[in-house]
Write a structure and sequence with these properties.
Elements (H helix, E strand, L loop, with lengths): L8 H11 L2 H8 L6 H8 L4 E3 L14 E3 L2 E3 L3 E3 L12 H11 L4 E4 L6 H7 L4 E5 L5 H13 L4 E5 L9 H6 L12 H5 L2 H9 L22 H8 L6 H11 L3 E6 L2 H9 L4 E5 L12 H12 L4 E5 L5 H10 L3 E4 L1 H33 L12 E3 L2
Parallel strand pairs: 4-11, 5-6, 6-7, 7-8, 8-9, 9-10, 10-11
Antiparallel strand pairs: 1-12, 2-3
Helix pairs in contact: 1-15, 4-15, 14-15
């Protein structure tokens, strides 16, 4: 299999599995506990059906929407994901360039391997920064100010990772950041010589945006779980979130909202958007899927803020169902990370092209000239 033959999620996943050492692949692929929520995130889309209209003279449908104050050319963008340098040596630079090419958002994680300033220099496309509140407030303040100076368009605060979920695959594989060779992982690394060569011959692994503030996860081998548990503030509350909203003073979302009550509180503290997300099934196993919740949350507050569905997206029809249920746009992580692993920037471009093609084709088949025409009347839930 090669990149040209990757047509869907499973194709990119299979190619990524061939190219990545086992600990790295399973870090992308895995979820928390029994991975019930991980599976549910996609399965939930199967419990309703799209209702098309025919003879609608669609022509070329308008796929654009507006989020975080920016018009984007398609209603899906790249979720913020940590440590992209692990998956391909081009890392965040590849993702940012690919997103710019397709006129949609690139999102940077606090735990990125490139700096805010580096990405700002190479991409003029729309950019979102994902913030984590650290115990050391100066780290949080520094990240917000650097994003402002560097021209990022929006910010989201992840609120569902006060402690790391129980990701048992990481325990089994001995996954650490930066990677270290253990007896268990040695054969997996040495049997992927191209990945190992690129990892060792390109820029040193570091959490570039926080490396000057803390050496955790940079100068010593630390697991992701240990970094989160040591550095993030488990006592974060609504006042902390409001502080970040006001300090940023621009388009702002809370990422990890799953209830109507929390969506209403997000409005109260000044958020312009929410990202309905369970962190890709990597935190609280047994929780609802984003698609399970999007209609109820949209019915309650959809006229007051933008709603982004994050999680479980594998097909263009998933995006259409989310929009019909009330989402403003969608974001996705695993599929573009598998594509990045499979082919760097070309891989991310291909997965975005595939999604654009699917959404465009499905809109024509639905008889919709604009995504604004996608509403509850286009969706029937099975009983």
């Amino acid at each position: 299999m090669n990149l040209k033959n990757c047509y869907n999620f499973e194709d990119f996943r299979k190619l990524a599995k061939k190219k990545l050492p086992s600990p790295i692949f399973h870090y992308i692929d895995g979820g928390a506990d029994d991975e019930i929520t991980l599976r549910r995130n996609t399965q939930s889309f199967d419990e309703c059906d799209l209702v098309p209209n025919v003879l609608a003279s669609v022509g070329k449908p308008d796929l654009s929407t507006t989020v975080f104050g920016k018009k984007i050319d398609m209603p899906i963008f790249l979720s913020p994901t940590a440590m992209q340098r692990l998956y391909h040596h081009e890392g965040d630079k590849a993702s940012a360039k690919a997103a710019e090419k397709f006129g949609t958002f690139y999102s940077m994680s606090t735990m990125a391997n490139n700096t805010i300033e580096e990405i700002s220099k190479i991409s003029n496309g729309p950019k979102l920064f994902q913030l984590y509140i650290h115990k050391d407030q100066s780290i949080t303040d520094d990240l917000i100010e650097r994003c402002r100076v560097s021209g990022f368009d929006g910010m989201c605060l992840t609120v569902d990772t006060l402690v790391a979920g129980n990701r048992e695959k990481d325990h089994r594989t001995g996954f650490t950041t930066p990677p270290k060779l253990t007896l268990e992982s040695f054969m997996s690394f040495v049997t992927h010589p191209l990945w190992l060569f690129n990892y060792l011959t390109h820029a040193k692994f570091e959490l570039a945006n926080v490396s000057k503030k803390t050496d955790k996860g940079t100068n010593i081998a630390k697991s992701v779980i240990e970094y989160i548990n040591e550095q993030y503030d488990p006592a974060m509350n609504w006042k902390d979130a409001e502080y970040c909203v006001k300090k940023w003073n621009g388009p702002f979302a809370l990422k990890g909202i799953m209830s109507i009550d929390d969506a209403k509180r997000a409005i109260d503290i000044g958020c312009t958007a929410i990202m309905i997300s369970n962190h890709g099934g990597r935190q609280l196993d047994g929780s609802r899927s984003p698609f399970d919740q999007v209609k109820a949350i949209s019915d309650a507050v959809g006229d007051k803020l933008e709603i982004i569905l994050d999680g479980g997206i594998k097909r263009g029809t998933h995006v259409l169902k989310a929009l019909a249920a009330g989402a403003t746009a969608c974001s996705f992580g695993r599929m573009f990370l598998f594509a990045l692993s499979a082919g760097g920037q070309k891989g991310v471009e291909q997965v975005l092209q595939n999604m654009h093609n699917e959404i465009n084709r499905d809109m024509i088949l639905m008889g919709c000239k604009s995504i604004k025409e996608l509403n509850n009347s286009k969706l029937i839930y099975r009983k």
